[in-house]
Write a structure and sequence with these properties.
This protein is α/β, with parallel strands linked by helices. The chain has 10 helices and 17 strands. A hairpin with a 2-residue loop joins strand 7 (141-148) and strand 8. The termini are far apart.
Length: 319
């Protein structure tokens, strides 16, 4: 008898599900113009105070916040974020100066470690040391290094000169970059980092389920799910329903194949599905779309935080 047959005939098994491959969804997304052109279109690389931290001026004053009316929301309505946003992703750089004061102790489901949920936990220590080695200030971040099709890191000259981009895992930095966009949009909200993805951008459905239920137990207001499943998961659907029944807003990326359908779990009726638009306020060519889409927001050539006190330009519905 096969394993599935044994499970079906076992009276002590209530339900079961095959393990499902889960991926970060940025395959198909790409930075759509030259990095030099992007940098030329941003404010000068000065620094500015942003809700208690010193940040790159280009990060705060880039086009995306203006397109969504963020400044008016913060000044006219006094809305700057409240409660906690759980980010199920590759983890976060716990020492990034822009994010550090907003981070709560999270959980690393890959290594079963409570606390930092660090991006560095499953990468070569040399990579972490390289990204963290510089003592240069914010004003010196004027070198660009393409990491992959959808990420271009903005580094100081010394770091850019020694970083071997071919040694950076495919998903490394994803969680830190998502967290930077959450912080830019809601700077007084807290962020709960939940590391369910390895640095290569893969995860197991088992770890995702644990992360969702863990987030519910921490009484978060929002669960951010910038990932895609290759096939629907009844167990994840149940977990998301468990969260939404308790008033938690679950948000997911629409997908990056330019298709008139949404990736899973964005396609679930209880999930806020988010597509990507350009800085010209039109749909990004890579972004999925469809009648069940809830909203779109700038997700192309967005400037955000990157591990090692650095920044990056990114594109994708995750962002």
């Amino acid at each position: 008898m096969t394993l599935i047959g044994k499970l079906l005939n076992d009276p002590e098994v209530i339900d079961f599900e095959r393990e499902t491959r889960v991926l970060l969804p940025e395959k198909g997304a790409a930075v759509q113009q030259s990095t030099a052109g992007i940098l030329d279109g941003l404010p000068p690389p000065g620094e500015t105070s942003y809700f208690g931290t010193q940040a790159l001026q280009s990060y705060v004053e880039q086009p995306a916040p203006s397109l969504i009316g963020l400044h008016k929301t913060q000044t006219t309505f006094g809305t700057t974020g409240a409660g906690t946003v759980a980010i199920i992703d590759t983890g976060v750089d716990p020492e990034h100066p822009v994010l550090k004061n907003s981070l709560l102790p999270g959980y690393d489901f890959i290594h079963e470690i409570a606390g930092a949920a660090s991006e560095y936990a499953d990468v070569d220590p040399v990579l972490g040391a390289t990204l963290n080695q510089s003592t240069a200030g914010i004003l010196d971040k004027n070198q660009v290094v393409p990491i992959n099709a959808w990420t271009t890191a903005i580094l100081d000259q010394s770091t850019a000169g020694i970083l071997d981009a071919t040694q950076v895992p495919a998903g490394f930095g994803h969680g830190t970059m998502v967290a930077g966009i959450v912080h830019l949009s809601a700077p007084t909200a807290k962020i709960l980092p939940l590391k369910a993805f390895r640095s290569d951008g893969t995860a197991s459905i088992f770890d995702l389920l644990r992360a969702v239920y863990y987030a519910v137990g921490q009484q978060v207001k929002i669960i951010n799910m910038s990932f895609s499943l290759t096939e629907p998961s009844p167990a994840l659907r149940k977990a998301i329903r468990y969260a939404t029944d308790r008033g938690i807003i679950c948000v997911a990326s629409a997908g990056n194949f330019g298709m008139p359908k949404l990736d899973y779990p964005a396609s679930l009726p209880l999930v806020v599905a988010v597509a990507s638009s350009t800085n010209a306020d039109v749909r990004s060519t890579f972004s999925n779309y469809g009648p069940d889409l809830f909203l779109a927001a700038p997700g192309e050539n967005v400037l955000t935080t990157y591990p090692g006190r650095n920044y990056a330009i990114v594109s994708g519905t995750s962002f």
